[in-house]
Amino acid sequence: MLLELARWLEQLQSVFGLFGYLTFRGILAALTSLALSLWWGPTVIRRLAQLKGGQPIRKDGPESHFSKAGTPTMGGALILLTVLASVLLWGDLRNRYVWLVLAVMVAFGWIGWWDDWIKIVKRDPNGMKSRWKYLLQSLFGLGAGLFLFYTADAPATTTFYIPFFKAVALPLVGITFVAIAYFWIVGFSNAVNLTDGLDGLAIMPTVLVACALGVFAYASGNAVFSQYLQIPQIPGAGELVIICAAIAGAGLGFLWFNTYPAMVFMGDIGALALGAVLGTIAVIVRQELVLVVMGGIFVVETLSVMIQVASFKLTGRRVFRMAPIHHHFELKGWPEPRVIVRFWIISVILVLVGLATLKVR
User: Fold this and answer.
1) Which of 9, 12, 155, 341 could form a disulfide bond with 16, CB atoms 3.0-4.6 angstroms apart?
2) Burial per residue of 300-339, b for 16 or more beta-carbon CB atoms within 10 angstroms, e otherwise
3) Residue pLDDT, tens place only, 241-298
4) In this structure, are residues 105 and 270 in contact, taking their beta carbons and an 8 Å threshold?
5) Count of other CB atoms within 10 angstroms of residue 151
6) Which residues are CB-contacts of 126 (< 8 A; sequence separation ≥ 6)?
7) Is 170 helix (H, G, I), strand (E, B) or coil?
8) From CA 277, how far away is CA 248, in angstroms rounded?
9) What pLDDT does residue 51 have?
10) Is residue 233 within 8 Å of residue 154, measured between CB atoms?
11) Strand 159-161 to strand 169-171: parallel, antiparallel, or no bridges (unpaired)?
């Protein structure tokens, strides 16, 4: 929106040409979403409290969580609103990738809102029936994958790349590409949701991964950088920097209120949407496997649940004291802040490893 105004004003004053730079608009997007989060945050929390939007606590969860009952949830709405406002202000609205990612964010956010609403109104900690949630996620995930495949305008946009190996690239046919896109979008949507179990645990890795994906998007959208770094060139992908920056700013703003002890919880409305957005951006910039590395915390949290369920069904025994794995460490005696910060540190390391793939090829 403001980009179009800046382009017109540039004819009158060259200083407005600054808005043509992705890095400058990315900084503005991050600052805008951060400022809006800090500004709207108290109002949103107060409104959620008035609506009695308190988080129901699992009866089989750690006892230390029982005191959190009644803490307002659905705070992820604050993240989505500020990201949306920031991107509409500073993004290039002629870019199809921008609209696709925003559509995915809103669609998965709607699923999360529905799930949270059931938890709050019906006081059911399990929320929406799993089959309905998965069906809706599948429809939106497949829709995004089909859109990307049928609008692909370069061979690189439908090729599967292996990090650390510059000569390993697998061209994908329609059904394979759509299946991978679906799996990453839906998979990471649920992975972030499973990670969102402690105060601030999910949002900081999300911010870190979003920043790193912004680096990949910038390099992939630039012909010179993509050639130098030997990564796929994806025309138009650079504009995703604005979305990544907006997520980073909104996430930090949300963390201001979500840090231990949390004043508000993200809820499914935020976790499902943010995870789906990370998966979608990774598919667009053709860095699916790098996302698995950088989002390793999300992956391990998901695997811990799968291992726990499989082990209990097959042997009747549990591998972990409780899944997802962050609860396992709580039950081992780790204070909640210790679990959170250590997981953050691991996430920083994994993101740095992922960024190293830009050069190590």
Assistant:
1) 9
2) bbbebbeebeeeeeeeeeeebebbbbbbbbbeeeeebeeb
3) 999 999 999 999 999 999 988 899 999 999 999 999 999 999 999 999 999 999 999 9
4) no
5) 11
6) 119
7) strand
8) 13
9) 72
10) yes
11) antiparallel
- This prediction has a pTM of 0.92
List of long-range contacts for 237-240, beta carbons under 8 Å, 24+ apart: 237/97, 237/284, 237/285, 238/22, 239/22, 239/91, 239/92, 239/95, 239/97, 239/98, 240/97, 240/98, 240/101, 240/213, 240/214, 240/281, 240/284, 240/285
What tens digit of pLDDT does each residue of 240-255 get?
999 999 999 999 999 9
Distance of alpha carbon 343 from alpha carbon 361, whole angstroms: 28
Tens digit of each residue's pLDDT (9 = 90 or more) over 85-126: 999 999 999 999 999 999 999 999 999 999 988 887 777 767
**Is 93:108 a contact under the CB 8 Å cutoff?**
no
Residue-averaged pLDDT of the chain: 89
- Is residue 66 over pLDDT 50? no
Q: Where are the domains of the chain?
A: 22-356
Inter-residue contact 100 to 144 (CB < 8 Å): yes
Average pLDDT over residues 161-185: 88
> Does 324 sit behind a cis peptide bond, omega within 30 degrees of 0 on the bond before it?
yes
CA dist., res. 79 & res. 41, Å (int): 9
Pairwise CA distance, residues 240 & 100, whole Å: 10
Nearest 5°: the CA angle 64, 67, 71 is 125
Q: Is 314 helix (H, G, I), strand (E, B) or coil?
A: helix
Q: Are 192 and 202 in contact (CB under 8 A)?
A: yes
